């Protein structure tokens, strides 16, 4: 983790984040409305930044708010962003909003996941397409990428597993690079081990703008669905829990899929 900075405190942590983001001291100074000299002094340990400056620098580097708290702790300050349990009554409006989004997306599948891809909530459409998945994979904490690609998950029913698997793996790897996490790196390695070889070229049925998921439903229906996905998050969240939530919504790529989901999903 980039913010494991007990050896060098805020100086090393800030330098690692800046290097990881490939941002020069000058560019960071411009973004944070300070001077390159000040950034240099912070990174060398010659200057101790205040709480507000740490937050400005972290925002300028697009550091996730969980890790911004760690930067503050490394500098001797209290965390600035609360980390509230999703079951807390104070987050009831958020839970209600998420439930409405999930229900409103029916009959199409949709899930809420955390930063690691673990399932937080799902609608009936998702439960329908995951019928027949090994119960161990669906036991909490349920990893949605693992459910999709595991041999005892949806993988045997994904017609275009070779391309879809690498779409998922690339996304997990990109997230682990952008926001370093040992857990995400381990998940990506696990998915690589169970995935077929990466295809050398895009197949003729590729939509051009998105990788479709071609999925057969479980027996006895055995329908073939073509789905594309969208990802949504709370862009202005100031609570760690809310900031790390992601909505992944599956949309029909053709009318036949839309009709099949309308028929198969019990609202």
UniProtKB/TrEMBL annotation:
Q: Which SUPFAM superfamilies match?
A: lambda repressor-like DNA-binding domains
Q: Name one Pfam family in it.
A: HTH_3
Q: Which SMART domains match?
A: HTH_XRE (SM00530)
Give the superkingdom in one word.
Answer: Bacteria
Q: Which residues form the HTH cro/C1-type domain?
A: 14-68
Signal peptide start and end residues: none
PANTHER family attached here?
A: BLL4672 PROTEIN-RELATED (PTHR35010), BLL5781 PROTEIN (PTHR35010:SF4)
Name of the protein in its database record: Helix-turn-helix transcriptional regulator
The record lists the organism as: Micromonospora globbae
């Amino acid at each position: 983790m980039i913010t494991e900075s007990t050896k060098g405190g805020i100086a090393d942590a800030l330098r690692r984040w800046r290097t990881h983001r490939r941002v020069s001291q000058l560019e960071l100074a411009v973004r944070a409305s300070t001077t390159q000299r000040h950034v240099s002094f912070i990174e060398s340990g010659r200057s101790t930044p205040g709480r507000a400056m740490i937050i400005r620098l972290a925002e300028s580097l697009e550091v996730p708010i969980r890790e911004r708290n760690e930067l503050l702790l490394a500098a001797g300050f209290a965390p600035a962003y609360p980390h509230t349990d999703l079951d807390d009554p104070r987050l009831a409006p958020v839970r209600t909003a998420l439930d409405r989004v999930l229900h409103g997306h029916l009959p199409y599948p949709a899930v809420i996941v955390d930063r690691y891809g673990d399932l937080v909530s799902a609608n009936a459409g998702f439960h329908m397409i995951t019928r027949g998945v090994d119960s161990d994979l669906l036991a909490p904490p349920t990893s949605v990428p693992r459910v999709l690609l595991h041999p005892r998950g949806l993988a045997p029913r994904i017609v275009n597993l070779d391309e879809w698997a690498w779409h998922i793996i690339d996304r997990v790897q990109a997230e682990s690079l952008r926001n370093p996490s040992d857990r995400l790196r381990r998940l990506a390695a696990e998915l690589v081990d169970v995935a077929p070889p990466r295809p050398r070229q895009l197949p003729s049925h590729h939509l051009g703008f998105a990788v479709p998921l071609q999925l057969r439903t479980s027996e006895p229906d055995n329908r073939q669905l073509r789905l594309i996905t969208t990802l949504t998050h709370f862009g202005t969240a100031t609570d760690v829990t809310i900031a790390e939530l992601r909505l992944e919504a599956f949309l029909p790529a053709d009318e036949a899929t839309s009709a099949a989901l309308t028929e198969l999903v019990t609202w």
